[in-house]
Design a protein that fits this description.
The chain is mostly helical. It has one domain (14-63). It is built from two helices and no strands. α1 crosses α2 (40-58). The radius of gyration is 17 Å and the shape is elongated. The protein starts with 13 loop residues before the first helix and ends in a 6-residue tail after the last helix.
């Protein structure tokens, strides 16, 4: 069996990584919620906070 050697050409899709992080934030919020479902207002709050954190971390480069 031939396995290709690992290369140092890792490609990151920053949009996909941001979306995965947003999903994680929603999962955490849902797991700590007292109600069965997150309200639309709570979802908006979680996503807004995550967006603000992302922009703080990535600054103006986030639009590229």
């Amino acid at each position: 069996m031939h396995v290709a050697p690992a290369r140092g050409t890792a490609v990151q899709d920053h949009v996909a990584l941001a979306e995965i992080e947003l999903c994680g934030d929603l999962i955490i919020a849902a797991s700590t919620a007292r109600e069965d479902r997150l309200s639309p207002d709570r979802i908006d709050e979680v996503l807004k906070l995550a967006e603000e954190r992302f922009l703080e971390e990535h600054g103006a480069d986030a639009d590229e």
